[in-house]
Design a protein that fits this description.
CATH architecture of the largest domain: 3-Layer(aba) Sandwich
Strand content: 25-35%
Number of helices: 5
Distance between the termini: 23 Å
Shape: elongated
CATH class of the largest domain: Alpha Beta
Protein name: VWA domain-containing protein
Organism: Streptococcus suis
Order of helices and strands: EEEEEEHEEEEHHEEEHHE
Length: 306
């Protein structure tokens, strides 16, 4: 299920099940007190003592466990488009808080945090991905995007589509180093970045032992405006007619520097919204548990930073 949260809801749920199994069996006891006499057994896990006519049989099982019992993969997809220029430092601080681990000894299931156990099968893992930029724009004369005009290719490499990612990290230092490198510029190609993240995560996640749960967190602040074309370029559709009408309205309203604006409504936002909905379905499939138990499914969380 996809959940929408505000920037203040920086918590995710980690399900922990701790099971220590101990079995004992006590036979009848006599009404008088007698000393317990240990008896020899072939099984070191079984202790048998005789108390008068009664036998007490105790079986112990050594259970080795490490938190978390159900490990977590936290997959973060961070929008680093130009609109985050003035707020990215706050996002960086929030992500460092979110990904700060605690030790096994300090773990509190009432206030769940990441735990890096040092064991690849039980440790939590963090993957951070960023996206920004558009490779070019398809211009259409009309508002219905049917009469094609031309393709305008982005010449400045800094503004082209860029997707960056980490491996699955278990080091707070490495996580913070990547977060510190966030650089904001360009458009918001959300769907291509979701698909790139899914592909990359699937290629490195491994066998997902111990019902490993995937939490996917998307942080963005704007409308998705890029799509991947058949030749692999990440493009935006723009309506010349819409752009002219909107910019003229801005000028009449006295908006400062309105001639420099490229209105969001100039793009084919209805088509982009449908693509985003379909990408959400792919994310829901990504976080579904391998054991077909809905209780072990992960979650998709969308955080709109405002």
């Amino acid at each position: 299920m996809i959940r929408k949260i505000s920037k203040r809801a920086w918590q995710f749920v980690m399900a922990i099940v701790l099971l220590i199994s101990q079995m004992g069996m006590l036979l009848s006891s006599m009404p008088y007190v007698a000393a317990e006499i240990p008896l020899a057994t072939l099984d070191p896990t079984i202790k048998v003592t005789q108390n008068g006519c009664a036998l007490k049989i105790e079986k112990t099982e050594e259970v080795k466990w490490e938190l978390p019992r159900q490990p977590i993969d936290l997959v973060i997809l961070q929008d680093t488009s130009g609109s985050f220029r003035d707020t990215i430092s706050y996002v960086q601080s929030a992500l460092k808080t979110l990904t700060k681990p605690v030790s096994l000894e300090d773990y509190d299931e009432k206030e769940p945090r990441l735990v890096f156990t040092g064991n690849k099968d039980t440790t939590d893992r963090v993957m951070i991905n960023t996206f920004q930029g558009i490779d070019g724009s398809n211009y259409y004369y009309d508002s219905d995007f049917k009469i094609f005009s031309h393709l305008n290719v982005q010449q400045d490499g800094a503004y082209r589509y860029q997707y960056r990612n980490t491996e699955l990290l278990t080091s707070e230092t490495e996580i913070n180093q990547f977060i510190d490198k966030f650089n904001t510029i360009g458009g918001t190609p959300t769907v291509p970045a979701i698909d790139d993240t899914i592909d990359r995560y699937n290629s490195i996640k491994g066998d997902m032992k111990n019902n490993r749960k995937t939490i996917f967190l998307l942080i963005t602040d704007g409308v998705a405006n890029g799509f991947r074309s058949q030749n692999g370029q990440v493009l935006m559709d723009r309506s010349i007619d819409r752009g002219t009408l909107l910019q003229n309205e801005f000028i009449r309203a006295g908006v400062v520097d309105s001639q420099r604006y490229i209105p969001e409504a100039q793009q084919d936002y209805i088509k982009r919204a449908q693509e985003l909905k379909e990408a959400g379905q792919r994310l829901e499939a990504l976080v579904k548990s391998n054991d077909q138990n809905d209780k072990n499914d992960g979650a998709v969380i969308v955080g709109f930073w405002e």
